[in-house]
Amino acid sequence: MSMLPMSSDPIYQRYSFAHGLIKEAGALALGYFNELDSLTVKSKGLQDVVSEADLQTELLIKKRIAESYADDGFFGEETGPSGIGDKRGIWVVDPIDGTQPFLSGMSCWCVSIAFVYDGELQFGLVYAPKDDELFAGGLMAPATLNGRPIAPHKGNALSDGVVSVGYNNRIEPSEVLAVLARLLEAGGMYQRNGSGALCLCYVACGRLLGYVESHINSWDCLGAIAIIRAAGGQTSDFLVDDGLVKGNAIIAGGPAIYPALAQLLG
């Protein structure tokens, strides 16, 4: 992969910085992944667990950001918000998105980093260490996968590809079953791998037709949303109604299929 160009723009400097940071964090997480039997794991709720790998990876990211950009705020899944109320720049981090697959020895997990400035999503990076795939993009940079340009699926009907349907314990089972019924009745097919960030990146690069979920947390999706938009895809306005803190619904896909995806959520 070619080196990123030099720039005096402070947002782009953070984007360049984040490339090295996410690789360092990914290497740390992968080290824990290779020693799963020795991990300490705690439950946060139904189908929601956290390991020392999650916490230590987030602490590394938080430390590196504080060392380089002390004036920025930080919002991580494991350590929560820090200075987000009065900071113009906010880093939004999920150290390991897909903890259940991670702990099960599966490869579908990733590190996600996003940066928001003055309430606007600027860029995102998502790194899947086991597959060594780095997705990146933002307002100032095109969407790439390991440095190569990517674009969403060109399909315009739900039957043209596979849609990822997100689910978590904040969503009623009947609600997601209704989404699946609409999708299947339209001739579509569904997929879920346990990592919303990765599935959204698969939308960005055209592996998946789209993604829908009636509620997802910001750390799970903001990095990938930035990449989808940079790739020419369309997403719902996630940050509206305090989505950064409260989470929101997410709809994502190519412009041609987006209206059909939106109808899936009812």
From TrEMBL:
Protein residues bound to Mg(2+) 2: D220
Keywords: Hydrolase, Magnesium, Metal-binding
Record SUPFAM superfamilies: Carbohydrate phosphatase
Binding site for Mg(2+) 1: E77, D94, I96, D97
Spans through the membrane: none
Annotated GO biological process: inositol metabolic process; signal transduction
Cofactor dependence: Mg(2+)
GO molecular function list: inositol monophosphate 1-phosphatase activity; metal ion binding
Gene3D superfamilies, A to Z: 3.40.190.80, Fructose-1,6-Bisphosphatase, subunit A, domain 1
Top-level division of the source organism's lineage: Bacteria
Keyword Plastid carried by entry: no
Keyword Nucleotide-binding attached: no
Family named by the database record: Belongs to the inositol monophosphatase superfamily.
Name of the protein this chain belongs to: Inositol monophosphatase
Organism expressing this protein natively: Labrys okinawensis
